[in-house]
Write the structure tokens for this entry.
Amino acid sequence: MDGRWRDVGVLAGALFAVNVVARLIIRLGFDGDDTVADRVSLGMFVVIGLILAVVAFRWGRRRPLAAWAADVAVAVLVAMALTVLVGPLLVGHNPFAGGAGTFFAQIWLYLLASGAGVLIGYLVLTALGRDHRSQQLKRYAEVKTAKPRRVVRR
């Protein structure tokens, strides 16, 4: 159980670190240029989606969907809360400075990017037949075809 929460914490920390790096790039390199800031933010969401696609692909091979989906959801929610509430403070801004529209837009974009990443990773895994359920069904079919049929005498 300890390793499970460590993995969730590492994932949440990695997702938050991507946001911190993007905010520092915007703050130090392109302060005041909204076009570049939007592109860096878009790149951040793409990287978050890719990280979650890889995590879904790897965790989906080892464990059933119900076991790892909750872990990913907790990590995404913790990372999103840190990104929206703590991230702006690290670069000297108020989390609510842009108004309610900007605040909730960040939440929706984060959920969209993370949901798309997890969905793409799991769909690729399932399409390749490498997910936990497909592997269980494959092992079951191999066991059932390997045993000779038992003859019943009456």
In short: The longest helix spans residues 34-62. Helices lie at 2-29, 34-62, 65-90, 100-127, 132-146.
